[in-house]
């Protein structure tokens, strides 16, 4: 039987909160929701014996070590706030996580990144806009991805398309690799379901994938679709 607990970093963020909710429903392990200010989660979640709300900051390796000691899986759903935040949070925050997670024996790290992150799209108008919304956002996200890929820890990197806040559980997942897929959208709740599945699915090990969704359920159903979406994806490709 699995021991330990799962951790969501950036748990008060819109995708992070969906990850916590999903974990509380589908995982037998406790879920540790890590936020910079625990007051931010007040009233956002149903009380649960399996839920721990803990203060932590991905820019501080000491803080990360405290919240990750004993963890089994970790989802990084944090994203910087403020124009100059991408280097500290989206790059070095992931780098800190990879180093500490490896050190304390975390089994898998799942990172929420973004489509268009690779340099092959450096002249794509949307990438240029995103790189200016926060200084060098996409370049720093890619550096964060690379730090995780090169860390030696088991990882999954999920690169969603445009995020929406609609209900989850009603779509068919569309996946790609190599940052070549046409742009599309997906609800945060569905990204969260994929991130949570990635924590334990053997097929998600060392996978980097792009992720969007189309309306309507697959013939096999939503939950089976989550289990099977890793088939045909290759470790290491990015
Ligand atoms: N928006 C889109 O369409 C889109 C598309 C593709 C990919 N993405 C990516 O998807 C991810 C999730 O997006 P989202 O909109 O769900 O995020 P979000 O709501 O902006 O949440 C980000 C969270 O990160 C937390 N955070 C910031 N700095 C932190 C730190 N130093 N330590 C710990 N936590 C920290 C913030 O906490 P505080 O509450 O304390 O500030 C916030 O709750 C992001 O990486 C984003 O770039 C977004």
UniProtKB/TrEMBL annotation:
Signal peptide: none annotated. InterPro entries: NAD(P)-bd_dom, NAD(P)-bd_dom_sf. Residues 10-202 form the NAD(P)-binding domain. Gene3D superfamilies: NAD(P)-binding Rossmann-like Domain. SUPFAM superfamilies: NAD(P)-binding Rossmann-fold domains (SSF51735). It comes from the Eukaryota. PANTHER family: FLAVIN REDUCTASE-RELATED (PTHR15020), OS06G0360300 PROTEIN (PTHR15020:SF11). This is NAD(P)-binding domain-containing protein.
